[in-house]
Amino acid sequence: MNDEHETVPRGYSGALLGAIAAALLLGIASLIWAWNLSGKLATQQQELSVAKQHNVQLAADLRETDAKLRVTADELEKSLGLTQKQMDARAQQLLARENAQEAASRRLETAQKETAQQVTAVASDVSSVKTDVGGVKTDLGKTKSDLAGAVATLTTMRGDVDGHSSLIARNHDELEILKHKGDRNYYEFTLSKNQKQPVGTVSLELKKTDSKKSKFTLNVYADDKKYEKKDRNVNEPLQFYSGGDRGGLFEVVVNSIDSKNQVKGYLSTPKSAPVPPPLGQ
């Protein structure tokens, strides 16, 4: 019996020691965990502080970036606005060019139509001209034939210089035939007695007339020389040289004696001879 009573306290003592040991181990473990937790907490606090500083820097950077973005956005908006204006101006230019091209095309089409009409009209005119030319050729041939016949009726007279013969006109109508023949220059004149008168590039002066005998006397002034043609007949060629190297044989023909004081006729000169200046010069 005594042995049984003594074993009970020993059992309680072992259990108590076990509990104490367990408590100690738990306390030590708690201390170790608390120490580890404290270290981790300190580390996390340090990291949190660094993170806060980083966040502050990020916030500053973000504000700076936002400001730059706003500036860039403003510049982009201005650039887009300018580009839009340029595009509008370019569109207006293209529209104006298209309008100008359309107007030019219309003008070209109108000009082509007018040209075609003009070509048709010209072709018609050319046809008419060909017909007219044919008629003119016929008329010209007839005129030449008539002129040849008229020239054949003219009189050939021997002049008073070296026996040179030439065709003369006995009146105004025959003088027109000689003019159309075109071999020489002709100047008609009417001379009054004792009046020196320029005719062509020379001067003539009627000195005496005899209407009954159809004779006259006149003086010719040419190249500072005086030629007296005394007692000459109507329609007689009075010849003399004048005009220097460019001149040649000149002829004066008196066709009629109208009264005691007046005669009519013409002066004939070579084509190469000088011509008088126009009136008023």
Helix and strand arrangement:
Layout: H1 2-153, E1 155-158, E2 165-168, H2 172-181, E3 184-192, E4 196-199, E5 202-210, E6 215-222, E7 225-233, E8 238-242, E9 248-259, E10 262-270
Antiparallel strand pairs: 1-2, 3-10, 4-5, 5-6, 6-7, 8-9, 9-10
Describe what you observe in this structure.
The protein has a 4-stranded antiparallel β-sheet, covered by helices on one side. The chain has a 4-stranded antiparallel β-sheet with strand order 4-5-6-7, with no helix packed on it. The protein has 2 helices and 10 strands, in the order αββαββββββββ. It is 58% helix and 26% strand. It is α+β, with helices and mostly antiparallel strands. It folds into 2 domains: 1-153; 155-270, Sandwich (Tick-borne Encephalitis virus Glycoprotein, domain 1).
* Strand neighbour order, sheet with most strands: 3-10-9-8
Main sheet summary: 4 strands, antiparallel
**Strand and helix order:** HEEHEEEEEEEE
Q: N-to-C terminal Cα separation, in Å?
A: 190 Å
Strand composition percent: 25-35%
Radius of gyration: 69 Å
Question: Approximately how much helix is present in the residues?
Answer: 55-70%
**Low-confidence parts, pLDDT < 50 over ≥5 residues?**
1-8
Instruction: Quickly count the domains.
Output: 2
Question: Which outline best applies?
Answer: rod-shaped
What is the tally of beta strands? Answer: 10
Roughly what is the average pLDDT, rounded to an integer? 81
Class derived from helix and strand content: alpha+beta
Work out the helix count: 2
Keywords: Membrane, Transmembrane, Transmembrane helix
Transmembrane segments: 12-35
